[in-house]
Amino acid sequence: xxxxxxxxxxxxxxxxxxxxxxxxxxxxxxxxxxxxxxxxxxxxxxxxxxxxxxxxxxxxxxxxxxxxxxxxxxxxxxxxxxxxxxxxxxxxxxxxxxxxxxxxxxxxxxxxxxxxxxxxxxxxxxxxxxxxxxxxxxxxxxxxxxxxxxxxxxxxxxxxxxxxxxxxxxxxxxxxxxxxxxxxxxxxxxxxxxxxxxxxxxxxxxxxxxxxxxxxxxxxxxxxxxxxxxxxxxxxxxxxxxxxxxxxxxxxxxxxxxxxxxxxxxxxxxxxxxxxxxxxxxxxxxxxxxxxxxxxxxxxxxxxxxxxxxxxxxxxxxxxxxxxx
Length: 325
Ligand code: AMP
Ligand code: MG
Prior knowledge:
7-stranded mixed β-sheet; alpha+beta; binds magnesium ion; 22% strand; binds adenosine monophosphate; 5-stranded mixed β-sheet
């Protein structure tokens, strides 16, 4: 197999699965079935999260039956929390794409994503990344990545509300060694290559971070920015759309600095986005400069926080962080 054709069927399948899931999310938004329920950790989850995961896991398990899948949601959580009525809403939306599916099928597909142990090759799915953004009318994403030997090799990210260049609603794709591309999510269009912005002057740069101060310390990021002479205000955005804006040059730095609580990042929150940035010419590490290790299981237990940059500014950010420490 030549370098160019590696992962072609994985990429094609991932793009189809993510597009379909993004359409389901937009169906849910149009029908206003947005009433979220709370998970055990009190974070919100909606019909769209479960429906999106069911469709993606069904597709993966049919086309790549031997690949484990690590996904955010679980049917066990759905039922144990007494949210059985949510299943009616999920089924309504899934049936638009899988007319013959019943509740048992949907529960089984959701649980395809419950793999936990480290695996040499696995898929990871965030069916609605940035559920809070989804609910508040701002950014969210559907994210899917294939990981081999601890590193993402295929990444697909749908951002239905994100504008990059002249496209509003984008699908971003990357295969390791083959670059990052975007195409319109809701129309057909030719994929175009994405490259990070090449600035090496921190003072001229822009940074982005989570909307949620509990997910990423805004104060520490502001200290790093001051140290680097960055005067532009931060771009605050939910979901892995932040990685996409670094790829598109609207931001040059994404800082995810641990906030007070000890939190270990989830693989599904970073696998697709980090590959997109690397293949667009940027660099991704944790706060200490270590490469993200996706080979530990469901979480990035070997890492702390995340920094994604255009590459040229990466060491500047790491040095500023070490001065902060
Ligand atoms: P964002 O939209 O960038 O804030 O990221 C959303 C993701 O943050 C969710 O999918 C959660 O998995 C993750 N998350 C939840 N709690 C934390 C936390 N304390 N620190 C970092 N990430 C978190
Ligand atoms: Mg997420």
